[in-house]
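Slide 14.
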Amino acid sequence: ILVLDLRLMKTPSGWDGLFSSKTLLPIFLLTALGLLVVVRQTREAVISARNSDYVRTARAKGLRERTILWRHVLKNALSPVLTTIGLLSSWLLTGSIFIESIFSIPGFGILYYGSLKSRDYPVLIGTTLVVTLIVMLTNLIVDVCYVLLDPRARVK
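Slide 15: predicted structure.
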């Protein structure tokens, strides 16, 4: 729509740097769906947390609505959202294969796709190992954030 119908930009192929106008469409396509999922899940979690007993108790104590929102509602609503953000990291890595192929952007996805197409097994194993390490590191960060959000999640 942006390229063919509205003619707001030229066909974005190639790489002119991160701050080029060619990167707007690939970045939007790679992040839009994940961002929408996170926003929707955050909204649902906040709505369900606002109707909880501890929020009613905090209101009965006379706490300000802003304090209730930040200390009680968001703190308890962020656990499922954090899980989704952790899962989206692997989706972004696999999505980059398609986005980089479509827009001719030289990057990790093109390296993976090229090694798959040419049956270059050492590069294929290396890139798979890097993706695995990134996903594992992301899961570790999510687990540490669980403990920061909810001290009851600590292992004794």
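Speaker note: The helical segments are 24-50, 53-61, 65-103, 108-117, 121-149.
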